[in-house]
Amino acid sequence: MATQRLNEQAEGVFIISATPFAADGSLDLQSTDRLIEFYLEQGVSGITVLGMMGEAHKLAADESAAFLTRVLQRVADRVPVVVGVSNAGLDNLFSLAHTAMSAGAAGVMVAPATGLGTEAKLLAYFRQVFEGLGESVPVCYQDYPFVTRSEISVATFNQLVTDYPQLVMLKHEEWPGLSKLSAVRKAARDGLRRVAVLVGNGGLYLPQELARGADGAMTGFAYPEMLVEVVRLWRQGEQDRAEDLFDAYLPLVRHEQQPGVGLALRKEVLRRRGAIATAQVRAPGPQLTATDHDELTRLISRVEKNLEAM
């Protein structure tokens, strides 16, 4: 069992792990070991697996279990591991969540079912989720309506925080979302239990989100050391230095955030950095062209020049 449990004090960078595949599309567990060590060497505060950008929806149940087990064994409780358990079927969600917690996960991440449509349906859905998981399973609510097409208001989120103490974190990645983040933080200042807020979207708006009260990031940018250092500098009161560093990487942050091809770009950068053996995205998925590779090479070169000039 994990000695670290996800709680409201979580902060820093919880990197969203890629899922390494071999060239034939099978799980690459040797690269998984290498990737986990790479993330830890960059100073991340936690690791999140089986997220949307981790291609969780493309894994069979036994593959999810094998990957999760390998990650937890490799991490060996050095940092907390959060497991994405979102699933169209609640029984499947509960099963993976309890498997993860029994194997040593620190908590689970749950996104709304796709297209719930109304606040009443969303609230009813999460009441089922929390009651089915039980109070012993810490939960991160993933608010990503761009994909789920299910939007939650601040009032409804606050109702869940009030009713379910196991809700300890918000993964905030709504577009636009800065005003929503401010409203969540205002509610905590006004007396609501404060939960951790980590932001996604590749870190695209990280400086502004930190200014609005975010505790860090939960995303998968291929240069996690930048995210780690930006959050560290910001917390030390060096906001200008944090933004200057962020700006140096911004061309790559933006490029990697493209819908559809972004994951292939992220995996290719990780491959070039020696973190994984291949940049394989499991089918159906994008494959980079020669032009894509040349474009990425030029962007990386420009980022390196930006860093040299700092």
From TrEMBL:
A GO MF label: 4-hydroxy-tetrahydrodipicolinate synthase activity
Family recorded in the similarity comment: Belongs to the DapA family.
Keyword Acetylation tagged: no
Source superkingdom: Bacteria
Cellular component GO terms, alphabetical: cytosol
Protein name, entry field: Dihydrodipicolinate synthase family protein
Keywords: Lyase
